[in-house]
Structure formats: structure tokens, C-alpha cells
Design a protein that fits this description.
single chain, 7 helices, mainly alpha, 117 residues, Arc Repressor Mutant, subunit A, globular
Length: 117
Amino acid sequence: MRDPVEDKPDYCMIEAVMEVVGGKWKMAIVKHLFAGPQRFGQLRRAMPSITQRMLTRQLRELEADGIVVRTVYPQVPPKVEYSLTDTGASLKDIALRLESWGHWYREQRGSPEAAHE
């Protein structure tokens, strides 16, 4: 169990953010949810290299941190959707900037000039 974000001093805010949305998959999941509610299978198909176990774990952590909400519909078979909370939706600008930086970084790493740095 990690320390609550409320207990982090101001100089550790990036550490706090990374505890909530860090890792390989969380921001990718959040990015897919910007399009609207998604079912588990839709998320799996959108990210074919994530395992079912890891997707389940990451969704649970995002839900516990108030980024994602899990809605279970009372029907047979059960229908479950994941969507962003207002807090999760507030990550949109950050996610888009990170994605843009990722494209830029990939290009830099692939350019001949970057090989000499």
C-alpha cells in the first residue's frame, strides 16, 4: 500500500502523480477512454499487447484512485463499462502532450543526428 497523496509534501507532487497514472498502461487506458465508455473487451482489442490480468489490475487501480468509474448494468449476461470520472477527464491535455512528446522523442531517437549526441 502506498502513502496517500494527501500526505505528500509539495516537492513530491510528480511522485504522487506517477503513483496514480505512472507505468506502462495507465495513461494508454485513460487515452482510450477519452472516446467514451468502453467495455473490457474493447480495451483489450485496442491494446493487444496488454494481458487480461494486467488490464484488470490497472483498471482496478485507476478506479481506486478516482480516475475511472466501473458501471455494472443489471442484465444477463452482465454488462460492465469503464469510463472516466471528471478527474480522469482532466488528464486529457496532459495525455495529448505526452503522446506528442512520445512522437517527437521517437523521431529524435531515429534521426541520424540523434545517434551522434
